[in-house]
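pasting for ref. prot 1 ->
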Amino acid sequence: MNLSRIRLIAIVALFCSFLPGLVHGADLISQQSFGEKNEIVLKFAAEVDKLKAGNINNYTVFEEQDPDIRLELVSATPNYAGTAVSLRFKEPLNTAHTHIVTVKNLGGVEKATATVSQSYLGYLFSILISALLINNFVFTKYLGLCVFFGTSKRKTTAKGMGVVFTLVIVASATMSWFFFNFILIPYNLNFLEIVVFIGLVSLTVQAVDTILRKVNPILFNSFGVYLVLVIANCVIIAVPLMMANNKYNFYETFMLALGAGGGFLLALYLMSSVSERMQLARIPPTFKGLPIAFIVAGQFAMAFLGFSGLKIF
């Protein structure tokens, strides 16, 4: 038997000696998921020692993209049966990133590793719902109020402005993502992002202005000066700035822009529905006009607080 064959047999034997431990280690953790904003829940395939499961020194957690930065554990709380443990951290977890959990000296296994992540489609949907309802830019962040109060007097105008606003914000956010990732970042021009984003919004609004002037002059005239004010709208500028700050990819940026535009459309439609009814209501003279509009907007804002803390995935 030659030397190379002897080496091959030795390697195979060594691998086989470790194989049972590896398989058992992989089978130790049956399920893993994110819990609350600073929690990871691990479920074990069998009952484990609760004293060892409650020792935070037996766990190592880090984000997949930053393996050198260990996340600080505050507590490890096993359940009554010893089949699951809740890991709580000092800081909230970024559930958009994949987390690696390593368990040592538990369940007769020297080391076991689990990957914790959420469904990417669910993450995209959560960005959409967050911008649409949970963190609505009008009713929770109070952005874009000038255009909001100016075009929410009639349903027709409100729906038209909402659709136009959504098209503008999606188009400008998409172009901003391309400019930010392929021009600003490679050439270290991040300090120009606000100027570039405003320029792209202006370009998009001018294109919409020209198209509406030709296609639907009646709707164009109903917008008045508010279509031009979209250029300086806080929501339109906030979306690309959030994209740059959170380092969103193209799909995440698209869902954020779509949710922000849809949330603005929803806010306009709700406000216009009430405004048309208020025209027939007996309102004290001192409250007519902008004062009653602010009161109604405040009531909508209080209603939207009910979505705070909502977690879809």
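and prot 2 ->
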Amino acid sequence: MLKGKTALVTGSTSGIGLGIAKALAAQGANIVMNGFGDVAGPKAEIAALCVKVAYHGADMSKPAEIEDMMKYAAAQFGQVDILVNNAGIQHVARIEDFPVEKWDAIIAINLSSAFHATRLALPAMQAANAGQGWGRIINVASVHGLVGSAEKSAYVTAKHGIVGLTKVTALENATGGVTCNAICPGWVLTPLVQKQVDAKAAAAGISNQVATAQLLGEKEPSLQFTTPEELGALAVFFCSPAGNNVRGVAWNMDGGWAAQ
């Protein structure tokens, strides 16, 4: 379905980003990866899906590096047709104890980076298809873009901002072929969440299994994690013809979290 398209997925060397990148690659899209940590392994996983894959290690807190990444993607594959703004970090603390440098980093990586990548991707998307335009911008927000949780002031602020940016981007492109939507997962068992499970287990002196059950039980009625594969399938839907008139939504896959 996406053969000949190019998808740039930020924060795609593991977790949600990698799951979405693999789902888009399975539909034929060439992939530009971004992120830290192991690159060779995830890159090989995507290449095994018989698409072209490239990597750029932009620090998503730095606008100049984001601009270089977008230029690199265009040089590799012509243009970015699908932009998935997924890069994110987390820090947990009460507001009065929240380190200022952590606040600044979370806002920069979780929110501002999506703005910078979007503003740089839009012109080529708008000019595609002989001026009719075609593009898909998918912002990975969170259920925390819809509701709040204590001790996550920066993360909740950034994710609410992502939902707002999604709506404005969709409205500004409402009469063309460029759509923008947000995915709002609940708990997804990524390395980021695993650290929270480990910390909970260590603090309470309980097993990882019990800590996991407690974590899910606090917020997620389904008592199960959403998977990167499920999120990838939703991203593919947004890119399909069936998603042509889905615009500006914040689509939660949260096991009923926000329904409470």
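Residues 188-225 form one domain.
Residues 100-127 form the longest helix (28 residues).
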